[in-house]
Amino acid sequence: MKDQLVKAMALDGRVRFYIDRTTDLIQDAMDRFDLPNGSADALGRVLSIASIMGSMLKSEQEMLTINILGTGPLGSIVVDAYSNGNVRGFVANPELTPEEAHLPVHDLIGLPGTLIVTKDLHMEENWSGTVELQNGEIGQDFAYYFTLSEQTPTAVSVGVKIDENGVVQSAGALVLQMMPDATDAEISICENVLSGLKPMTELIEHYDDSSLDQLALDMFEDTKILANDPIAFKCTCSKEKTAGLLRTVSKGHLKEMIEEDHGADVTCNFCNTTYHFDEDELKEILEETEKNLTESEELESHVSEDQGDLAA
Ligand SMILES: [Zn+2]
Prior knowledge:
Blueprint: E1 4-10, E2 15-21, H1 23-33, H2 37-55, E3 63-69, E4 76-82, E5 87-91, H3 105-109, E6 114-120, E7 127-132, H4 139-149, E8 154-162, E9 168-178, H5 184-196, H6 200-206, H7 212-219, E10 224-230, H8 239-246, H9 251-259, E11 263-267, E12 274-278, H10 279-311
Antiparallel strand pairs: 1-2, 1-10, 2-9, 3-4, 3-6, 4-5, 6-7, 8-9, 11-12
Helix pairs in contact: 1-2, 9-10
The structure holds zinc ion.
């Protein structure tokens, strides 16, 4: 089945839970960056949870960024998530030595480390929460983040299974949250449900031929499905936006690109897409930059003239 994200609730709305299947989107990330299995596993776990966190956002304008900064070989993991559940992200140092290739995810990430979530809620200031990594296996680290930073008791299960040929077999995440009015009895029902669940990759494999709705319905007697939407690895970059970035480069540097390199290749960190700009395109950007500079110089001289008038 295709990648998807299910939102559901149960126990008369006192528990809400989210399940996603991310097998294809992690394969997509793996192919884009040519990731070794260990790096894809670590990034894939974060992408799986990030997609769910994105879907928790209230409006289309909102988005969030997850930064995992460890002390292991991967360096850092950066993932952006959007309200439609789409995600993009990368590992700072994905290449692994033969020895590192056999390390479990928590050693690749490396403790001590921090997990930072920054939410752009389309307000003047971003919201940000930081927690210490608990065990570096990602699932528990996020459970701790939700409980501490968002004050919502949360259980998280996540898993990525990749075979020796670099093919993602199954992947996904489950996030289950207790509402403030949940009773002790309901909390223990949830604990029972969770302890009876297989590991995430086995669950995703088991339900591979059916919609994840079925998994949600099998978890609680009174499960109510709220939504089931497709999700994907999707970047927001474009050649136009990249040209915008080039307009912020210094004139000297742009001239160098034109005269010495006769063009420029700009690669997006988040999706590894390379945009090529030939000499003519760069000259156009340089002209625009020069024009903008002249305009702002003129503006400045107007301002100072005005000030002069005021002073007089
Ligand atoms: Zn991109």
